[in-house]
Amino acid sequence: MPGGVRCSRAASPVLCPGGWPHSLLELASRCNGFNPPPNQGPDPSLVYRPDVDPDVAKDKGSFRNYTSGPLLDRVLATYKLMHTRQTVDFVRKKHAQFGGFSYKKMTIMEAVDMLDGLVDESDPDVDFPNSFHAFQTAEGIRKAHPDKDWFHLVGLLHDLGKVLALAGEPQWAVVGDTFPVGCRPQASVVFCDSTFQDNPDLQDPLYSTELGMYQPHCGLENVLMSWGHDEYMYQMMKFNKFSLPPEAFYMIRFHSFYPWHTGGDYRQLCSARDLAMLPWVREFNKFDLYTKCPDLPDVDDLRPYYQGLIDKYCPGVLRW
Ligand SMILES: [Fe+2]
């Protein structure tokens, strides 16, 4: 949806018929505490989007019932925490903390299986393991792009960075839409009007302008994104020298950057390369959204095919 989506639109989802809570901070502490356990609550990136087309939102609403309070509260609370605590300083610390990839050694399939530990018991519609989403996304891509085996693998890999949650990281530093830190959040960032007021960076004269600490059209590769599973997985793939094409790295790195790829914001930071990559990110996104349908893949049947892709592009025991 080019041209940007305003926050006012974000603030009228089917998810919240009762209106917004008066104090999100109060809500955050009441709902989750300030450090919600990693397995608690829905992944906000799958529950709430600022860009959702009303018709799609309606379908989505019937698909996942978030018309009642607690789940939406938790999503809001997660974004409030994220938008308060994701700062330039925080993101740099996370890069330093995880950039050595000394958390764990495991294969891709072990990580896929490990993500099953992330099944959200409070989510009314997700009563199947998280890895099904990975296989469903991959299979959707495979059907539409049979000739691009590397793209199929992107579907399987794209959320594996969520192992961060199993390393004890809070949800607001793992899931949800991403945004650049070091500059003022733009209008299509979800809940942007109501969740950033306590972020210390916005009191900083350098970080609080539209360009912030960046040069015009510096390229997203030079932008510090909020920390989460996208950036972690991208760095992990680079560290372990995956032999996938640049498009694959790019799609995984920016798949949750909704304010950019769907909201149409942050164009002032984009280089020509970013604009060339945008159609890839959008193409990937078609398969990532709303794939949690009851039509569950037979994972055991699919494993050999994907193991073959893993052996081709990212074999063996990897460092996480
Ligand atoms: Fe994701």
Automatic annotation (TrEMBL):
<feature type="binding site">
    <location>
        <position position="64"/>
    </location>
    <ligand>
        <name>substrate</name>
    </ligand>
</feature>
<keyword id="KW-0479">Metal-binding</keyword>
<dbReference type="Pfam" id="PF05153">
    <property type="entry name" value="MIOX"/>
</dbReference>
<comment type="similarity">
    <text>Belongs to the myo-inositol oxygenase family.</text>
</comment>
<dbReference type="InterPro" id="IPR007828">
    <property type="entry name" value="Inositol_oxygenase"/>
</dbReference>
<feature type="binding site">
    <location>
        <position position="229"/>
    </location>
    <ligand>
        <name>Fe cation</name>
    </ligand>
</feature>
<feature type="binding site">
    <location>
        <position position="288"/>
    </location>
    <ligand>
        <name>Fe cation</name>
    </ligand>
</feature>
<dbReference type="GO" id="GO:0050113">
    <property type="term" value="F:inositol oxygenase activity"/>
</dbReference>
<feature type="binding site">
    <location>
        <position position="255"/>
    </location>
    <ligand>
        <name>Fe cation</name>
    </ligand>
</feature>
<keyword id="KW-0408">Iron</keyword>
<feature type="binding site">
    <location>
        <position position="162"/>
    </location>
    <ligand>
        <name>substrate</name>
    </ligand>
</feature>
<dbReference type="GO" id="GO:0005506">
    <property type="term" value="F:iron ion binding"/>
</dbReference>
<feature type="binding site">
    <location>
        <begin position="120"/>
        <end position="122"/>
    </location>
    <ligand>
        <name>substrate</name>
    </ligand>
</feature>
<feature type="binding site">
    <location>
        <begin position="255"/>
        <end position="256"/>
    </location>
    <ligand>
        <name>substrate</name>
    </ligand>
</feature>
<keyword id="KW-0597">Phosphoprotein</keyword>
<protein>
    <recommendedName>
        <fullName>Inositol oxygenase</fullName>
        <ecNumber>1.13.99.1</ecNumber>
    </recommendedName>
</protein>
<feature type="modified residue" description="Phosphoserine">
    <location>
        <position position="68"/>
    </location>
</feature>
<feature type="binding site">
    <location>
        <position position="159"/>
    </location>
    <ligand>
        <name>Fe cation</name>
    </ligand>
</feature>
<feature type="binding site">
    <location>
        <position position="158"/>
    </location>
    <ligand>
        <name>Fe cation</name>
    </ligand>
</feature>
<dbReference type="GO" id="GO:0005737">
    <property type="term" value="C:cytoplasm"/>
</dbReference>
<keyword id="KW-0560">Oxidoreductase</keyword>
<comment type="pathway">
    <text>Polyol metabolism; myo-inositol degradation into D-glucuronate; D-glucuronate from myo-inositol: step 1/1.</text>
</comment>
<keyword id="KW-0963">Cytoplasm</keyword>
<feature type="binding site">
    <location>
        <begin position="176"/>
        <end position="177"/>
    </location>
    <ligand>
        <name>substrate</name>
    </ligand>
</feature>
<feature type="binding site">
    <location>
        <position position="133"/>
    </location>
    <ligand>
        <name>Fe cation</name>
    </ligand>
</feature>
<dbReference type="GO" id="GO:0019310">
    <property type="term" value="P:inositol catabolic process"/>
</dbReference>
